[in-house]
Automatic annotation (TrEMBL), chain A:
The protein, known as: Cobalamin B12-binding domain-containing protein
Ranges for domain B12-binding: 103-229
SUPFAM superfamilies for the chain: Cobalamin (vitamin B12)-binding domain
Species annotation: Streptomyces bohaiensis
Keywords linked to the UniProt accession: Cobalt, Metal-binding
Nucleus among keywords: no
Top-level taxon of origin: Bacteria
Automatic annotation (TrEMBL), chain B:
Stated name of the protein: Serine/threonine-protein phosphatase
Disordered: annotated segments: 72-102
Organism: Streptomyces bohaiensis
PANTHER family: STAGE II SPORULATION PROTEIN E, STAGE II SPORULATION PROTEIN E-RELATED
Keyword Membrane in annotation: no
Domain PPM-type phosphatase: 315-538
Pfam families xref list: SpoIIE
InterPro entries, alphabetized: Bact_Sigma-Reg (IPR052016), GAF-like_dom_sf (IPR029016), PPM-type-like_dom_sf (IPR036457), PPM-type_phosphatase-like_dom (IPR001932)
Protein's UniProt keywords contain Zinc: no
């Protein structure tokens, strides 16, 4: 296998047909048909990278959409993802997918708590095809493991993936630690915002919106962090000095409990809730608190309001009156009366519920 | 006091007093002619006497200052404080340095008061130099401490040395035989890493510096005797001076730092060389730490390989998948373990084992290693789980470990469209089975834990898994995980059953990932015990492995 064949722009083959074929196979949970779609594409002249980015990636994206639209069950989604994983693995053994590394070493990892590893996996494969020596550490990588790996291997860059915004504080810790270890950080994934704005505010060296952009940035070379600069993480986010995030993150459980009690007092039907309903409500409140905390962390209203509009729709779908969301904000607001930034966010959130626009889900945005 | 007779330079009395002042004082008129000078001034400006032009006997800086000052209009000047001119004047007189303060009279005469500031200036210069070095060394320490990677550390060393100490810096690391890793950097350019095949005696001082012990001082080298390979290609112009400094490596050879300057620039001073040595001490220490870390981490990796949970895959038509999360945030291993021992042939049973040793961390992990090895040795007896457990129990009782363990054995073989399982629990939570329709059952097996009692009992149960059905082995780290929205609830078996119910029809690795994810999210950022899960699944009549084999076949063709 030579490099030239993988980098050669594929002949004029439309990946659309194979994408539809793959999608149909994923919908059926038919692993064989899925693999057949991909390998036929390769044999008909699609490049391996094209297969990854123009056949598999969009099909996987659709899995997320269908799941969010409730047209796919959790099991369907997992089956489809597992099939895609296997197809990618098989692709690496296909003659068109085998490349001897001739570029530097790169680490790819999902931040701790992030279980959606397929985008990072696809990216790893694309970079491998382009000659990089890639260490893919997988989903949910604890920061100490990541840093130990960086010290051991001394890569040219680390690519950090996160899809759910509530992982941003953890991502910040990982970014800071990697930079301190002298490794530039390229952040990617829906969590960092559509334009990568949070990647910048969290101090990442660069942000990229897709695999090809990552490849371009790597080829240009990412600047090493200045090892002599004494950088303190708080300098990225001076607003954290008010400790609102810290307090809310620390008292999350108490806050959820108090809100649950407060809601019961104001919303009598809740007293009749089944155990299961109560649990769902507690989980919803916990999500709101998590997003509130994250919005405080990055100091961005939009992060909170986007999530709230989406939650409003989900609640409506679940036939929970959306005004309970407003009540939730009232109770939370009383609990957080000494937190001006948090209260301002809650006010904005309330406005977002009343406006209730059809906002798309943040990222592929599964609030887990 | 009669002040009416005062001239511009003050009263007669004052004149006499400054005549004997310990500081040089010179009075000159508007045209630059010296009117008077005191004894101290005569001693400094030996060629100057009243009536001379200032420029003839005094240094130019003073004559220039005088010219500038006396050219200024007086009325402006009179509003200001008498001694203020256009800033403080000063300069060298011979090998001393003076500050000159002017007092201006209304007639344009100027009295120059000179203060010897040689010592202060020297002290200031020394202080400035020292501050710069201290800040550089602090900066260097920060930079060097940031990475524990040897290559990165050498890069940083080369970069710092090339920007602060010399025009170019080359680091030669201790190598194997004649091959030495070399890192070089020119100015603020890119760092270049290479492996050079060299005779270390070809460069004076190099062999000694690389040896590390006995300690050798850094030394100047005749640029002509520096071999070609040590001069970076990017360096412009010929080499003017070369210093080689050993990088002290805390008992082990740390390498050698070679500093080069071009012939056009300044050569190394004694001072610069001492400073280079201070830097080398820090760089050497950082490199030694990085080398030690690399060694330790390679030892750990090797030893850990045996303890890490294995990657599972499909064996003889049965899917296996496993997931593991150690309790400690930075731990990789702990007291939970799992293994799958593939059956020899297509219709032979594979044995899956999942267990939990009392305790956490590395110590517990070492015991899991022993149990895993013992079970491996007992594999030929796997057709009788109870007997296998009895033998394991005896082995554990006879070892010096005081810990005990609970475990589950599951033998699995594919029979046409189903997987036949024999499952035995030894004091362990019974495995759960998810049926195609989402029903969750508990395997009917129980038994004593191992490593405590002389005699143990266990019951084995048989289970058939149809296509898309899974059997989940798990440790109590999952069910006892505390967290959730209210912070202190247990994940619990009912939540686990509910989660597993959604896993009907999923491939084994998806089942494992889903359960792991839910448990991890339940725990959030809280503390948790070791968590291990293994899923055994009957895959769909699937041709995938055949297909990958097919691809391999095409490749060979």
């Amino acid at each position: 296998m030579t490099v030239s064949t993988t980098q050669r722009p594929g002949p004029d083959v439309d990946p659309g047909a194979y994408r539809d074929q793959l999608w149909a196979a994923l919908r059926q949970g038919d692993e064989y048909a899925a693999a057949a779609a991909v390998f036929e594409g390769l044999e008909d002249g699609l490049g391996a990278e094209q297969v990854l980015l123009e056949v598999i990636a969009p099909a996987q994206g659709r899995v997320g959409e269908e799941w969010a639209a409730n047209r796919m069950t959790v099991a369907d989604e997992h089956v489809a993802t597992a099939i895609n994983e296997r197809v990618i693995a098989a692709l690496a053994h296909h003659p068109a997918g085998r490349v001897r590394p001739f570029r530097g070493r790169i680490t790819v990892a999902c931040v701790e708590g992030e279980w959606h590893s397929l985008p990072a996996r696809l990216l790893s494969e694309v970079l491998r095809l382009r000659g990089w020596r890639v260490d893919f550490l997988g989903a949910h990588v604890p920061t100490p493991h990541l840093i130990a790996h960086l010290h051991r291997t001394g890569p040219e860059a680390v690519l950090l993936s996160a899809s759910i915004p509530t992982h941003l504080p953890t991502a910040h810790a990982a970014i800071t630690a990697a930079l301190a270890a002298g490794v530039p950080v390229l952040a990617g994934g829906a969590a960092f915002g559509p334009d990568g704005r949070y990647a910048r505010s969290l101090g990442a060296t660069e942000w990229a919106g897709d695999a090809r952009a990552v490849a371009r940035l790597l080829l240009d070379g990412l600047p090493r962090p200045d090892p002599t600069a004494m950088h303190l993480p708080i300098e990225d986010l001076p607003h954290l000095a008010d400790q609102e995030y810290t307090m809310i993150a620390r008292t999350r459980a108490e806050l959820v409990r108090a809100t649950l009690t407060g809601l019961e007092e104001r919303f009598p039907p809740m007293r009749e809730y089944t155990v299961r309903q109560r649990r769902h409500t507690a989980e919803d409140i916990a999500h709101i608190v998590d997003y509130l905390g994250t919005a405080l962390y990055v100091d961005d209203v939009e992060l909170f309001t986007t999530f709230i509009s989406w939650t409003g729709e989900i609640l409506t779908a679940r036939e929970v009156p959306a005004h309970t969301l407003g009540l939730t904000f009232d109770v939370l607001g009383e609990e957080l009366k000494d937190f001006p930034r948090a209260r301002a966010l809650l006010d904005q959130g309330r406005a977002a519920v009343t406006a209730s626009p059809h906002t798309p889900i943040p990222g592929n945005g599964k609030p887990a | 006091m009669d002040t009416t007779t005062t001239s511009s330079a003050g009263s007669l009395e004052l004149r006499t007093s400054w005549a004997s002042a310990p500081y040089p004082v010179v009075l000159a008129d508007r045209s630059g002619t010296v009117v008077e000078l005191n004894t101290a001034a005569s001693a400094v400006f030996s060629a100057l006497s009243p009536g001379d032009r200032l420029r003839d006997g005094a240094p130019d800086w003073l004559a220039d200052a005088h010219l500038r000052l006396s050219a200024e209009p007086t009325e402006q000047q009179s509003e200001q404080r008498p001694e203020s001119g256009d800033g403080p004047h000063g300069g060298q007189v011979g090998d001393r340095s003076y500050e000159a303060h002017a007092t201006r009279g209304s007639d344009g005469d100027v009295v120059w008061w000179l203060v010897d500031d040689t010592d202060r200036r020297l002290a200031e210069e020394a202080l400035h130099g020292e501050r710069q070095r201290t800040s550089f060394l602090a900066e260097a320490s920060n930079a060097l401490l940031s990475s524990l990677n040897v290559n990165r550390c050498m890069e940083v060393t080369a970069q710092l040395a090339a920007t602060h100490l010399a025009d170019a810096a080359v680091i030669i690391a201790p190598g194997k035989g004649r091959r030495h890793p070399m890192t070089s950097c020119v100015g603020s350019g890119e760092v270049v890493r290479s492996i050079v095949d060299i005779d270390t005696t070809s460069m004076p001082g190099l062999a000694e510096a690389l040896q590390g012990f006995p300690p050798v001082p850094s030394r100047w080298i005749d640029p002509a005797s520096a071999p070609e390979w040590v001069v970076p290609e990017e360096m412009e112009g010929s080499v003017g001076s070369v210093v080689i400094t050993p990088l002290p490596g805390h008992g082990t050879p740390g390498g050698a730092l070679v500093l080069l300057r071009t012939s056009g620039g300044t050569a190394f001073s004694e001072d610069a060389e001492v400073f280079a040595r201070l830097f080398a001490a820090r760089a050497g220490a950082a490199l030694a730490a990085a080398r030690m870390y690399a060694e330790q981490s390679s030892i750990t990796t090797t030893l850990m390989r045996e303890l890490l949970p294995p990657t599972l895959h499909q064996v003889n038509g049965v899917e296996f998948a496993g997931g593991y999360r150690a309790s400690g945030h930075s731990d990789r291993v702990g007291g939970d373990f799992y293994d799958v021992h593939p059956g020899a042939g297509e219709d032979q049973e594979s044995l899956a084992v999942l267990g939990d040793v009392c305790g956490k961390g590395l110590e517990a992990a070492v015991l899991t290693g022993k149990i895993r090895n013992t079970l491996h040795a007992l594999l030929p007896l796997a057709d009788d789980h109870a007997r296998m457990l009895r033998l394991l129990n005896t082995a554990l009782l006879n070892s010096h470990h005081t810990r005990f363990a609970t475990l589950v054995l599951a033998s699995a073989a594919r029979h046409e469209d189903r997987t036949r399982l024999r499952v035995t629990s030894a004091g362990h939570p019974a495995p759960l089975i998810v049926r195609r329709d989402g029903t969750v059952e508990e395997a009917d097996t129980s038994g004593s834990l191992v490593g405590v009692l002389r005699s143990i009992k266990s019951t084995t149960t048989s289970i058939d898994l149809a296509v898309g059905e899974s059997c989940l082995l798990f440790t109590d780290g999952i069910t006892e995980a505390r967290g959730g929205p209210l912070g202190d609830e247990m994940f619990g078996e009912s939540r686990l059953r509910e989660a597993l119910g959604e896993c009907a029809g999923m491939p084994a690795e998806a089942v494992v990932e889903r359960i792991q994810m839910l448990a991890a999210e339940w725990v959030g950022r809280g503390r948790h015990d070791d968590m291990a899960v293994v899923a055994i699944t009957t895959p769909r009549p699937d041709v995938f492995s055949a297909l990958t084999r097919g691809a391999a076949g095409r490749r060979r063709a």
